[in-house]
Amino acid sequence: MAEQVDTASDVRTYRIESGPYHAEVVSTGAGLRMLECMMDDGDPAKLTETWAAGKKPPLSAGLVLAPWPNRIRDGSFTFEGHHHQLEITEQARHNAIHGLVRRREWQLDEHTDSSVTQSIEVGLTAGWTYPIHLTVTHKLDDDGLTVTHTATNNGDARAPFGVGVHAFLRAGDSPLDECTLAIPAAVRLPLDSHRNLPAGISEPLRGTTFDFREARELAGVQLDTPFGGLVPDIDGLSRVVLTGSDGTVAALWTDATFRWVQVFVADPENDQAYPARGRALAVEPMTCPPDAFNTGIDVIVLEPGQTWTGSWGIQAL
């Protein structure tokens, strides 16, 4: 196992390996910096987008989003009769975005050759009155990467909770426009174009331009969409599958606790290019959709002392 510390930023990087896979995880936001798999031809294939060690992850790539993923309208929500006003962290759209821990340093709990576990206390801050302890374990084996999250309510009141990860999926060195994408989703939650907040109830995908149940080419496709109604494979896991033009196949799977994936195409045309790649694909596993603390959709409620656990992962197929 290897650990590196960037002296300028104090960000720690943990390297893990198992079988054909190796990965790097950083302490800031417990972020997945890179994941690669050694292929049959002896060359490694990138399964995620990456960034320079010690630098700020572009577009929040790889970071853990908790105690809520995505956005909360106006940073305002009411839970069990108590109103909360969070800091507005997306000024242009007047939302609270991506939780409270993605820019903080996580504590190392354990680092082995094939796994790393980090933890953090969400703590009490403006608008957030629920003390929640989080852990995340990145573990490699011959089947790929498994990421396991826990959340423990250390307070004396029930607490709302959600988690997501801003993962960027990649199929080797294939440009995104030469890839196909399959999403095993039955519905999408429509968002307004100005604030990226829910603009109605979930809509069925069949026969629409958002239907990716059969693999479709990504050339020119624009997405920033919450997909739900995920259909599992026979092993109980739901898989979003990205296939490159060279035959590299990267799949992001979720267990039943992650009921949504937000799929987003970074694109220079929208002033959101991924550095050195241009167009790139975020596939973000989420336990709940945008603004869930106001809509109530799939919000996890933690009883005092309760621990919740959920997992997702990435593998080469």
Description:
The structure is a single chain. By secondary structure, this protein is mainly β. Helix content is 1%, strand content 43%. The protein has one helix and 28 strands. It has one helix spanning 292-295; strands at residues 2-5, 12-18, 21-26, 32-38, 44-46, 64-65, 71-73, 76-79, 82-85, 95-97, 107-111, 115-121, 132-141, 144-153, 159-161, 164-165, 168-169, 180-182, 187-188, 203-204, 216-217, 224-228, 238-243, 249-254, 260-266, 280-286, 300-302, 307-316. The strands form seven sheets. It has a nine-stranded antiparallel β-sheet, with no helix packed on it. A six-stranded antiparallel β-sheet has the order 17-26-25-22-19-20, with no helix packed on it. A hairpin with a 5-residue loop joins strand 3 (21-26) and strand 4. It is globular. It starts with a strand and ends with a strand. The mean pLDDT is 96.
* Rg measurement, Å: 19 Å
The residue ranges in which pLDDT falls below 50 over 5 or more consecutive positions are: none
Q: Major sheet: order of its strands?
A: 11-12-13-14-28-24-23-18-21
SS strand fraction: 35-45%
N- to C-terminal distance: 26 Å
Secondary structure class reads mainly beta
Main sheet? Answer: 9 strands, antiparallel
- How many strand segments? 28
DSSP summary: helix tally: 1
Helix content: under 10%
Please trace the helix and strand order, writing H or E for each element.
Answer: EEEEEEEEEEEEEEEEEEEEEEEEEEHEE
Mean pLDDT: 96
- What general form does the structure show? globular
Task: Write the SSE topology.
Layout lengths: L1 E4 L6 E7 L2 E6 L5 E7 L5 E3 L17 E2 L5 E3 L2 E4 L2 E4 L9 E3 L9 E5 L3 E7 L10 E10 L2 E10 L5 E3 L2 E2 L2 E2 L10 E3 L4 E2 L14 E2 L11 E2 L6 E5 L9 E6 L5 E6 L5 E7 L13 E7 L5 H4 L4 E3 L4 E10 L1
Antiparallel strand pairs: 1-2, 2-3, 3-4, 4-5, 6-16, 7-10, 8-9, 11-12, 12-13, 13-14, 14-28, 15-27, 17-26, 18-21, 18-23, 19-20, 19-22, 22-25, 23-24, 24-28, 25-26
